[in-house]
Amino acid sequence: MPEPKREILDRQDEIVARLREIVPGEGVIVHAAEKRAYESDGLTAYRTSPMVVVLPSTVDQISQIMAYCNDLGIRVVPRGAGTSLSGGALPLEDGILLGLGKFNQILEVDYDNRCVVAQPGVTNLGITKAVEHEGFYYAPDPSSQIACSIGGNIAENSGGVHCLKYGLTTNNVLGVQMVLIDGTVVRLGGKHLDSEGYDLLGLITGSEGLLGVVTEVTVRILKAPESARAVLLGFPSNEQAGDTVAGIIASGIVPAGVEMMDKVAIQAAEDFVRAGYPLDVEALLICELDGPESEVDELLARVSRIAQDNGASYERVSQDDEERAKFWAGRKAAFPAVGRVTPDYYCMDGTIPRHQLAHVLARMREMSEHYQLGVANVFHAGDGNLHPLIMYDANEGNQLERAEEFGADILKLCVQVGGVLTGEHGVGVEKRDLMGEMFTQIDLDMQQRVKCAFDRDGLLNPGKMFPTLSNCAEMGKMHIHRGKLPFPDIPRF
Amino acid sequence: MPEPKREILDRQDEIVARLREIVPGEGVIVHAAEKRAYESDGLTAYRTSPMVVVLPSTVDQISQIMAYCNDLGIRVVPRGAGTSLSGGALPLEDGILLGLGKFNQILEVDYDNRCVVAQPGVTNLGITKAVEHEGFYYAPDPSSQIACSIGGNIAENSGGVHCLKYGLTTNNVLGVQMVLIDGTVVRLGGKHLDSEGYDLLGLITGSEGLLGVVTEVTVRILKAPESARAVLLGFPSNEQAGDTVAGIIASGIVPAGVEMMDKVAIQAAEDFVRAGYPLDVEALLICELDGPESEVDELLARVSRIAQDNGASYERVSQDDEERAKFWAGRKAAFPAVGRVTPDYYCMDGTIPRHQLAHVLARMREMSEHYQLGVANVFHAGDGNLHPLIMYDANEGNQLERAEEFGADILKLCVQVGGVLTGEHGVGVEKRDLMGEMFTQIDLDMQQRVKCAFDRDGLLNPGKMFPTLSNCAEMGKMHIHRGKLPFPDIPRF
């Protein structure tokens, strides 16, 4: 993380006093005990107590806070519900933690334009709750949807089981209001189609709080499908399951979700929640189809044929919504279930092109033997989004080191086959130092130039996503010195 | 347009010679007669002969050309098929016109990942042609799809009739390879889900050739729907038709397309192509539903009920694909059809929130009376994307001036009701000077800072999209001068 600024810490009292003027009442937290709740997010291995926590309740307050921080050079870490799995909301000891928890209102439901306008602290599920009585829902559904905020979803470009068919957050956001680091309030997008100019809305989505603070969102809502059914498909090998996923997609079918679990994960989940999974298979797919009933029936038949062609040894279609929920319960509990059978596990989040599934699974099994560590595979197979869980015991010899090497090998493999380091958990502090595996220095510089366009002094969430901090001022100095600065001369940050 | 650079024009011979070294053979065009084909794009009112036309055939050649232009400060205008309706590919007299016509190969068809990798000069329809024998297609379908290039589609974020259900270009592009102004070749996105870092792929899509030259694209392909049917719905008023569109969307139905025509357009189209349209209605909707047959049947019944509730006086469902094609033939020929009944027309391209359709149509009728000029309405009603055609005679009194005022009033109204200046034609030179109607100076500055991050010297397609050129160097100078540059102090470009 960036070196704390001594001159800011020395002025803490003055800063707190000014923040209390901007946010009167109980919105400014400085006592260590009260700050504890904000020390970490879902990646609890990292903890830092922020200099001060501010919980504004109006956009004007946020604008004033940002302008003040910009003037004094105070760093700002925005925080939604704090459910990030990559440390995206990890505080800085010399920084303000800007909590959006009080922005929890649905502002407008607009069925004619099929959208909802909400404050960023509304939970993901809260959007659906506001419209489900009319038969609508908000599609992206991260596992944390009961707790995670829609503002945080935008920061991380969150996914979920249904993103295969309905897209990630970026495909479902229509507009935002946001505050820039200088306090300026801007609107990007809206209820309309497309927009002239560069697509700044797309740029903001997934920018992990490094470009601005989102203070209002407009998201698309969808009509709930007429029917949905899930099928369990068991296979004698991971490769056959992987080929089946590729085969389903290649045939043109787009299931509402296709999840995959390997033998270790199946066993652990079944022991934990009794989902009714077969225990004599090496790999299990859960494939959900939705739409009109007659369409679902036909698609299920086609999925079944593809599975049979790939050697499926088990098949069971959910007979009602209760059974469908049971199928999913096992999948959703798979992480804690694996946690019950190993002292520690290391969860990866790589994404690969779908047709590489079988190859990557086979290679991962070889690595497992090489490192003498078990691995449980639970993942969004339809998206090619892997969540291998490397099982180890931190108290046993060099198992931790071996697990980390194993993890690095998996990520390198993902990149080698044309994939990426993360599918939905973001980079945050967790994968920051791995960005070089994926991007060249040219790529990283290109990203930093965009950062400089929004936040020249690097005050917004520094230390996240990128291995080094940008030095936008150096860029300017070089420019003046030489009169003209073609890109190759920009100093590497 | 930007002032031509005398020092570049003076070095024309030397520049041409260097370009001939980079692109041997017939790829460099300097003769006036041969350059004529490149003088304008689909917006033929604007014409400029470029200093030189270059038609490279490899990415390495493009990289060398860009690096050379960057070194010498030569402006570059990229061009796909030249079908832009907003002058996006209008040449500069001191600039290189970089034609991508030789990049016309499909590089890979990958059904497992449901995507096609193509060179940017492949036509939009060419993508579908490469996969239709397997039952797939590429969804965005601009009217010019037989001619327009996929690279141009990315530059303009092109739409089409089916974008209501299947999204604009930005929702169907998975990755690009592009060359930056300094010659650097980068890849953005790929065959995988999401990606870490800022979403530069989203930023590039719709950037009208101002950020880089796309040299390869990866696009999503979809399975063709099992069936598709269209229904003609006639109404005694535009308002009832507008309310029907809002009602269909509010009910949760997402048609494959919903197009609307008013009485003037209906009459003109029917006279021209005999599509079988009713002539005793004020407004006509063409609504297409696609999917499994049973779903289409049910949705057609629901659309019919909504139309009846809004007072529809005419309804006809296509009985076969031939009749469906006839319904569309009238719509697709509506522009030339209107051209047959008025000496001149001025085509607008605003977009509004759907529930404002009825209101905007009513206001437009009042304006038509005020200006004493007819207006024909032909548009993508489902998207809220209006294409009013203001009819006038340039040789009659002040009709041209009145038409322009009328047009400006329509665009202002679009912005007032929460819409934007363009839906799919782009800004280009056509709407450049109207950007101030939509954006504040703060918004425009934010966009310019992004431009500076990619192209500090403003060499890529200057004069398009933005009313003034950015002065990135000034930004740097200010920064040094004051030691610290908060955003409000950045000089207005």
UniProtKB/TrEMBL annotation, chains A, B:
Q: Which GO terms describe its molecular function?
A: FAD binding; oxidoreductase activity
Task: Read off the Gene3D superfamilies from this record.
Answer: 3.30.465.10, 3.30.70.2740, Vanillyl-alcohol Oxidase, Chain A, domain 4
Domain (FAD-binding PCMH-type) ranges: 46-224
Per its Swiss-Prot or TrEMBL entry, what cofactor is needed?
FAD
Q: Matching Pfam families, A to Z? A: FAD-oxidase_C (PF02913), FAD_binding_4 (PF01565)
Which keywords has UniProt assigned to this entry?
A: FAD, Flavoprotein, Oxidoreductase
Q: Which domain of life is it from?
A: Bacteria
Know the name of this protein? FAD-binding oxidoreductase
State the organism named in the record. Answer: Rhodovibrio salinarum
